[in-house]
Specification:
alpha+beta, Cytochrome p450, 5-stranded mixed sheet, 3-stranded antiparallel sheet, 16 helices, 12% strand, binds protoporphyrin IX containing FE
């Protein structure tokens, strides 16, 4: 089989699952060369992804989490750090992600979904990505962080520019734009943190700007860089899960029918969407020492990519792994990472947003159908959808 995981034109058509299946069966630790880079090892088996995620001594995050090298300043991002620096920062910022705080958000999330559906419901058609899927995580993360409503769309465009980093023609005009956006977003965060230091509110920026553990506080740059990570992580992932999840339901109407008859299935449905869609295709680590893995010799300093999207289809772990099954009971997916210190900080928030969104969609717009060409993101990092036109029976206008 011809394997080329660099070809973004292929990814734009869809995740190359047939390549990953072949790799899992024939060459599970594969070295992908690059025309313009040193190449990288590909971990395609669930077991190897979990092992690498947990072994931060052997698989460092400090040289970047993307296949390409990080932009200047990105080394201060939580996701690009190793313990003990990572542990210190994560302890300081995780205060805002206590399960208690997240559960308390359910009513707010339902309110936001209600507003979104009130706007599109009577139209009978919309772009599912921009009108529905993108709106919820954007509003929720901005509310959580304390970004005023009038600045939300700035955040939307900034985080698109940074996630596209030069690859997607609609989202990103290039690396220079990404670098400028990073600086602009940092300046914005510093200003917001300054306000919240003087007048703290019940939001995450206030919590981290004033957080202290044993006299240790976060510096300005640490706060602003964390803000950037949070905005990207909170927006792009959940948006693409909701869009990809909706697409999966439209393409598997038997599964949508099962859900209509059984609300108990919503919880396993969320997990199955995470597994099946895997909005984050991979994260990268760097080997810190020479080692052997499934007969391959990996050298210190080489890039190692953990393909979550492949681990989530591993036939050794998931029965009928290519099937979208909303009732799947055993589902140890790695969509939020394979465990270890970097495991997604926002996982319970994401699960809650997805659950509430689909509960309300099924209640109010139960016959959503794709009505035009789906446009995917040109990326092998995010399994993304840019636009997805849909139609549905219009709701009566609410007064
Ligand atoms: C469907 C939604 C989401 C998916 C699939 C997802 C996936 C991931 C993955 C794969 C990682 C890296 C794990 C690793 O390297 O071991 C990660 C890290 C992270 N996620 Fe998420 N995420 C989602 C939603 C969110 C949300 C809503 C937030 C914040 C509000 C968030 C915040 C973070 C942060 C801050 C990190 C870095 C953690 C660290 O380095 O310690 N994520 N996420």
């Amino acid at each position: 089989m011809n394997i080329d995981l660099n070809d973004l034109d292929v990814w734009q058509q869809g995740v190359p699952h047939e390549q990953f299946k072949w790799l899992r069966e024939n060459d599970p630790v594969y070295f992908q060369s690059q025309p313009d880079g040193p190449g990288y090892w590909c971990l395609t088996k669930h077991e190897d992804i979990v092992k690498a995620s947990k072994n931060f001594h052997g698989f460092s995050s400090a040289k970047g989490m993307h296949i390409t090298d990080p932009i200047n300043g990105a080394e201060l991002m939580l996701i690009n750090m190793d313990p003990p620096g990572h542990t210190r920062l994560r302890n300081l910022v995780s205060k805002g992600f206590h399960p208690r705080m997240i559960t308390a958000l359910e009513d707010k999330i339902r309110e936001v979904v209600t507003e979104i559906l009130d706007t599109v419901g009577p139209k009978g058609e919309c772009d599912f990505v921009t009108d529905i899927a993108a709106e919820l995580p954007l509003i929720v993360i901005c509310e959580l962080a304390g970004v005023p409503p009038e600045d939300r769309h700035k955040i939307f465009s900034w985080s698109n520019t940074l996630i596209g980093t030069g690859n997607d023609p609609e989202y990103s005009p290039g690396m220079e734009a990404a670098q400028n956006t990073f600086v602009e977003m940092n300046n914005y965060a510093n200003l917001l943190a300054e306000f919240r230091r003087h007048e703290p509110r019940e939001d995450l920026v206030s919590a981290i700007a004033n957080a202290e553990i044993d006299g240790d506080r976060l510096g300005d740059l640490e706060i602003s860089v964390f803000f950037v990570v949070l905005m990207i992580a909170g927006n792009e992932t959940t948006r693409n899960l909701i869009a990809g999840g909706m697409r999966a339901l439209c393409e598997h109407t038997d599964q949508a029918e099962r859900l209509k008859g059984d609300p108990e299935l919503f919880k396993p449905m969320v997990e199955e969407m995470l597994r099946y869609v895997s909005p984050v295709n991979y994260f990268r680590r760097t080997a810190t020492e020479d080692f052997e893995m499934r007969g391959k010799q990996v050298k210190a300093g080489e890039k190692v990519v953990m393909w979550y999207t492949s681990g989530n289809r591993d036939e050794e772990v998931f029965e009928n792994s290519m099937t979208f099954d909303v009732g799947r009971r055993v589902n140890p997916h790695v969509a939020f990472g394979g465990g270890g210190p970097h495991f997604c900080l926002g996982f319970s928030l994401a699960q809650l947003e997805i659950k509430v969104m689909f509960e309300e969609l099924f209640r109010r717009l139960p016959d959503v159908k794709i009505s035009g060409p789906v446009q995917r993101l040109r990326s092998n990092f995010i399994n993304g959808t840019r636009h997805m036109p849909v139609g549905f029976t219009p709701e009566p206008v609410r007064v």
